[in-house]
From TrEMBL:
The keyword DNA damage applies. Residues 209-244 form the UVR domain. Keywords: Cytoplasm, DNA damage, DNA excision, DNA repair, Excision nuclease, SOS response. It comes from Paenibacillus lacisoli. This is UvrABC system protein C. Residues 260-561 form the UvrC family homology region profile domain.
Amino acid sequence: MEEFADLVREQEKAMENIRHKLALLPDLPGCYLMKNREGTIIYVGKAKVLKNRVRSYFTGSHNGKTQRLVSEIRDFEYIVTGSNMEALILECNLIKKHQPRYNVLLKDDKTFPYLKITNEAHPRLEVTRRVLKDKAKYFGPYPNSYAAHQTKKLLDRMYPLRKCGVMPKEVCLYYHMHQCLGPCVKEVSKETYDQIGQEIGSFLSGGHEEIKKDLQRKMQEAAEDLYFERAKELRDQIISIDAIMEKQKITTADSKDRDVFGFAVDKGWMCVQILYVRKGKMIERHTSTFPFYGEAYSDFMSFVTQYYSDNPALPHEILLPGLDVVPAETASPGHGETVSGIAPTAAAAEQPKTMEGLLVAEASGEGAYTAGSDESESIGDRLEAESDEDSGSQESVSGAGLEDPVTAAAALQEWLEVKVLVPQRGLKRQMTGMAADNARVSLDEKFRLIERDEERTVKAAAALGEAIGLPSMHRIEAFDNSNIQGADPVSAMVVFIDGKADKKEYRKYKIRSVEGPDDYDTMREVVRRRYERVLKEGLEQPDLIIVDGGKGQISAAMDVLQNELGLFIPVCGLVKDNKHKTSQLLMGDTAEVVALPRNSEEFYLLQRIQEEVHRFAITFHREQRGKSMVTSKLDSIPGIGEKRRKLLLKHFGSLKKIREASVEDFRPLSIGDKLARQIIAALREDEQ
């Protein structure tokens, strides 16, 4: 009770400090950083008017997710910027630096692959996720690694750049297959490489039709000269080009490179869809789904900003959705409102919403894009109109500012120096609508899969309970032991609630009283420790206990439960076959086999439980074994006790780094040169 009172007093003091700081906020654009009680930055945002935006967090009502964010705020900082563009860039940099838990984060594994022609005397074509200022040529980004490698595979067959990382002393098989010029044995001019680079660039920029015609001409010439093998190679290259390019269904008349964005939000999640249009052809799409806590459009723009900061290969034009493009049923997190009040236009509603529909419209002549049909609203006109309005108007968490699509597009255009449009009418508006609708479909699919999985697991748990005669099967606890010839014995417990793993309930056990590889006594100890604590602390008891093993393990567990603790919880065992896969379910002290169909959901649930508890136990055992190996190697060196061992591991971090260290590296630890040499020699001797 006293702790709760202290917490309330601390919160009141923090809010008093926040109120004083709110009164001093300027009417300027900038970024704000929200902090929790530990001083950790939990959210970074941007605002056209800092005073209005930051105040909105502490006034009025919010939906559940925004309220959760606000409840953790104990302080804030702000940084004034000279323009909206600077605020956009600063927000991106601050998010990357601090990785706030409530911000949209474009993780490192979301960086996109590129094709790269290296800047070397004899260049290579490779796939990379890092774009460096190394004077190499980069093409992309590609939505996934598979698309990049498939394109590289085709280009490797068409253009004879070297494939080897290190130049060999003699030609390889690629040279004899006419897929390498053989720079290892003969001189290749820079002009030749420049021409190949230009052709690759032309191909990747959409000029594949000209290259295809050239290959067809060469194929005909080879066939006329009776070089049938060469003609077949050229024919296969043409087929490969057709296979790659047949996916590019949607075309535009102006042959521009475009990135088309759309997004949808629901149940606290956001899905962003990017359609890649290259040389007027839609070649691929990419979907990112993640939780978000701020205002929908603002967090969407944070994603876009981070995306282009990590992917500097820019298109000619970027199309962003307006607020009317977001599907009507999509919920906005700001103040619990929805976008349902902004209905799409009738013309937009009649337009086809999927990629296939758009293709049909194009084939019928209704959806052909033309370069002169750009009906996007002028950013300059909107900005001039906005400049006449009162800039001090109240700005809510879901209000105007950088959350306004046109203002955000203007800031992005100023930063990237490429054309950024928010289409209001016409077929470009249809493209952003298609992206948004596909995002909606992806998000709905995600929720349907989650619901289906939950329904399936709940039914599987209920069916398992029915099969073994239990009225309820809410909580299952499963145990497994792990050791190697009795060394470093451990045990682990996993918990499944309604058929779904509850990882926060998992527990690890170091075995204390058992010597040697005695699986039965190990099971007795861990069951005793677990359920003594359950009784002592009044924790929830499971409906079923599962042990990894047969009759011996079941009897050991039941003996402790019934005869020592007075608990009568059903116990069953899972037996594995000779392939170490779940084979049978044994029930009770008599180890009676429970007949379950191998293809049933309840049997699949048991498989998942057994695999999960085994994974958890063996992972813990490997951790303990690794620690004991480190301990034994250092303890065997004269002059190294427990204190010095801990000091060495804390300073160097691992045995490998200790082994690679020099004598001078040990001096800050007050270890003399003689002992340092002994440590290094002993560890290097063990390695050999």
